[in-house]
Amino acid sequence: MAKEISSWKQKSEYKIVAPENFNSRELGSTFGSEPKNLVGRRIGVSLKDLTDDRTKQYLKVYLEVEKVEDGKAVTKFKIFEVDKGYMHSRVRKGMSKVDYIGNLVLSDGKARIKISAVTQRKTQSSQKREILVRIIKTVENYKAGSVNDLVQATLFGKLGTEIYHNVKGIVPINRVEVEELKVF
Length: 184
Description:
Layout: E1 12-17, E2 26-32, E3 42-46, H1 47-51, E4 59-69, E5 72-82, H2 84-90, E6 97-106, E7 109-119, H3 125-140, H4 147-155, H5 158-167, E8 173-183
Parallel strand pairs: 1-5
Antiparallel strand pairs: 1-2, 3-4, 4-5, 5-8, 6-7, 7-8
């Protein structure tokens, strides 16, 4: 009778590596019986861990294994989202929140983006519409660029800051946050 080999002994360890945007930083390791079985796995990591910036600990990035080479699982950006508790704590009584959700067709892919602008006081519906129009105009400027450009602008606050400067003339703005970005 043949001795049965444990399934763990048949698996190999692979290092998980962040995309080049994050200096191909090593994020950890995972096990798999074959490299092709790793492709498509998602890894959730805080942006704080990717950039060593403690102020970005409420931001979560999901990376997906794109390929495996030389014992390393190379990832690509998939989803970015803000912690729901953080956003909930930003909106208080007497404030208004304007949400925008839209799809972008970029030069090298598609993306869905969700942006929230929080005002310092209650705003009229006409002011909310004007805020929404300016958010849409700002986001439209990124259509000509690549997915990587949009991801960089979103993760490091450039897009939120641009929207803030375009909108603050309508009504005093407390915060503009890109709540979610999904790349397809």
